[in-house]
Amino acid sequence: MRLPALVAASCLLAPPAVAIDKIYQNDSIADGASANVQAGFVKNEIAASVFTVPAIDGTVFLRKAQVLFFNALGQTTTRQVRVLVYASGAVNPGTPVYTSPIFTFTPGFANEVDLSSASLEFAGGETFTIGLKFEQEGLLVNFSSVVTDTNGIQAGKNRVFAVPGGWVTAESLGITGDFGIRAAVTIHGPTHYGAGTAGTLGVPTLDTFGAWKVGNAAFGFSGTVGAPSGIAALAISPAPASVPIQGITLLVDGPSALGLFTPTNGAGGWTLPTGIPGDPLLAGVHVYCQVLFLDLGAPQGISASDGLDLEIAAP
Questions:
Q1: Which end of the chain is less crowded, N or C, counting CB atoms within 10 A of the terminal residue's CB?
Q2: What is the pTM of this model?
Q3: CA-to-CA distance for 211 and 117, rounded, in angstroms?
Q4: pLDDT of 108-143, one tens digit each?
Q5: How would you label 37-73 residue by residue, b for 16+ Cβ within 10 Å and e otherwise?
Q6: Which residues form the domain of 247?
Q7: How far apart, in Å, do the first and last CA atoms of the chain sit?
């Protein structure tokens, strides 16, 4: 990184358009507030922000990156960039799990990049990093850049990939504010409830994979510790229940439940791709799920997972 070229210039940012459940941000920049432009990034350098999902949010789905972008000279010079996502908060976060196409960012407001197609999920307590990679440089172009706040930098929350030098903390380069790089997430993830009943291998588990959003054909269910080399019976219902029956507690409404079946492997594991239809009316709908097995190792021949409450997110 060419440190002499890193300058801070005051700017006034237009408020970003936000239509997301929650925004994770390290910066303290309010709508219309002043900020500093961290100009001087050259081609292939990266400015990055580190985020930790609060435990109370549970599993989140990463929907968008927002980057507060301005030109230190007050010009409208655009700049080509990519957005990178890393499944780590380390100083060197490793290989990105997502790399966007090249976008042209315009100074003066929060440029947004849709990340939903990557179907990235992070659990409560997990850390991830969003990086802004500069794909273009030039005399005026270098003055168009990400902004930082003006009330000090938080240790360990900001990273820079410098050329030369590689990954370092932003504060080690003398950067004095938090980058205006933000993560827009959906926080309505699956919630477990009730208790399962052990079988031959233990209490079966029930989980999901893929983003739980309308129109996601890659969504599905999976589990472990079911009856080995048997059949997993997944019950999906619009209503929960708590009914003791046949040695288990049925946690979904039986009369309204839809049953789906798939084989288990020798270790009791199973996967069931289902997809979620593209009907927008499904957004916000809760479905309740439980998987059951005929299992000779269970008290009355049936083992079951706990329940899973899934709220379908908007596309």
A1: C
A2: 0.66
A3: 9
A4: 889 999 998 888 989 889 999 999 999 999 989 999
A5: bbbbbbeebbbbbbbebeeebbbbbbbbbbbbbbbbe
A6: 191-311
A7: 39
